[in-house]
């Protein structure tokens, strides 16, 4: 066991003193919920992402659910997606009574294999929901070409991909619909929170109504000095509006986002240098198309036959070394609900299953030092009996 008694987590948010001060100012202002800070944060997001519409939400999950519903996807419909993702992706489809139709992933990148999509298209297919795994953009040109050919909508689960780029363009600056996450362990954070971007004015209006009860104007436009107490319920909506407290943090996080990604990239480059010849590991691969990786995660695969222990044993041993790791993710089709409801089974998606059984996320965050990283690598060496 490590002599170092301080636990090193797999993720840690980087929050500046300026951000903390702005959150405190927000608290002292007496305006805590959706207000001017949210409005500014959304403007900043639109400017950063080069998109016409950006709606903040309580979570990326809410964005996924609302996007599926707003597109009119319902019972009997099908949405093509990947099994190698967090369950919220598929849950947003299943909750509408539609069927998530999985396609296997690329074994090197963990992303949806776009070449497999056409094989599962049917007359019931209404949308494609790719996931930019760990911040690596899916190959979007052929995906969107296919969507256009078959008149399908595209909902990009970009929960990991804020700041990522595909062929020189930011994810969110083009395409159909994108949903980003600002959860505590993401590349930038508002604690909880997310954002939906799109270029469709009617969809943007619908999402705006969904997130606050179907009311046609936000509270801060009604309760201010010049506001009107009158409002209309256009249709029964939900409650998923971001608070000004969160937006105050998000404004500063967005300013620092590019530097966060740059620091993550340097650490990732060093992981590749230090771990590249370890036979016990399979490191994630890069696609040939031009891209900028968001590096929300650095997720390797542990090869049990070489390592002498399985992934779960490795994670437990690393915890004994006071090093945090994480599991991202168990393939969705292996969960009981998806097996019982849609009759998926082990063997359906062999690449996703192999990754699911072996994947482990190593520590990666902007304030992580090279000394921290060396500590992780030395602990891995001890666990794998390399030293």
Automatic annotation (TrEMBL):
Gene3D superfamilies: Aspartate Aminotransferase, domain 1 (3.90.1150.10), Type I PLP-dependent aspartate aminotransferase-like (Major domain) (3.40.640.10). It comes from the Bacteria. The modification N6-(pyridoxal phosphate)lysine is found at residue 186. One of its GO terms (molecular function) is pyridoxal phosphate binding. The keyword Cell wall biogenesis/degradation does not apply. The active site is at residue 186. It holds the Pfam family DegT_DnrJ_EryC1. Keywords: Aminotransferase, Pyridoxal phosphate, Transferase. One of its GO terms (biological process) is polysaccharide biosynthetic process. Belongs to the DegT/DnrJ/EryC1 family. This is Pyridoxal phosphate-dependent aminotransferase.
């Amino acid at each position: 066991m490590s002599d170092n008694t301080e636990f090193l987590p797999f993720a840690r948010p980087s929050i500046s003193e300026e951000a903390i001060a702005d959150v405190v100012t927000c608290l002292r202002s007496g305006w805590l919920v959706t207000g001017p800070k949210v409005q500014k944060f959304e403007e900043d997001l639109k400017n950063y992402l080069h998109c016409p519409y950006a709606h903040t939400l309580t979570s990326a999950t809410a964005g996924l659910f609302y996007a599926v519903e707003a597109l009119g996807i319902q019972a009997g419909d099908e949405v093509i997606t990947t099994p190698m993702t967090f369950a919220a992706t598929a849950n947003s489809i299943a909750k509408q009574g539609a069927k998530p139709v999985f396609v296997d992933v690329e074994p090197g990148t963990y992303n949806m294999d776009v070449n497999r999509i056409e094989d599962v298209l049917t007359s019931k297919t209404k949308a494609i929901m790719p996931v930019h795994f760990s911040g690596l953009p899916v190959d979007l040109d052929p995906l969107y070409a296919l969507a256009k050919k078959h008149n399908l909508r595209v909902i990009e689960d970009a929960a990991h991909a804020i700041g990522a780029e595909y062929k020189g363009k930011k994810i969110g600056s083009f395409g159909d619909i994108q949903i980003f996450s600002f959860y505590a362990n993401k590349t930038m954070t508002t604690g909880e929170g997310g954002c939906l971007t799109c270029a469709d004015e009617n969809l943007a209006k619908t999402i705006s109504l969904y997130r606050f009860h179907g009311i046609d104007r936000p509270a801060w436009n009604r309760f201010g000095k010049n506001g009107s107490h009158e409002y209309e319920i256009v249709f029964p909506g939900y409650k998923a509006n971001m608070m000004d407290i969160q937006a105050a943090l998000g404004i500063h996080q967005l300013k620092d986002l590019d530097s966060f990604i740059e620091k993550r990239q340097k650490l990732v480059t060093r992981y590749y240098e230090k771990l590249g010849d370890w036979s016990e590991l399979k490191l994630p691969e890069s696609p040939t198309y031009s891209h900028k990786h968001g590096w929300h995660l650095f997720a390797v695969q542990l090869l049990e036959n070489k390592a002498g222990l399985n992934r779960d044993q490795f994670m437990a041993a690393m915890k004994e070394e006071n090093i945090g790791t994480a599991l991202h993710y168990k393939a969705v089709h292996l969960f009981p609900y998806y097996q019982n409801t849609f009759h998926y089974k082990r063997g359906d998606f062999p690449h996703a299953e192999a990754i699911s059984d072996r994947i482990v996320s190593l520590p990666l965050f902007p304030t992580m030092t090279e000394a921290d990283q060396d500590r992780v690598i030395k602990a891995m060496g001890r666990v794998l009996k390399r030293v």
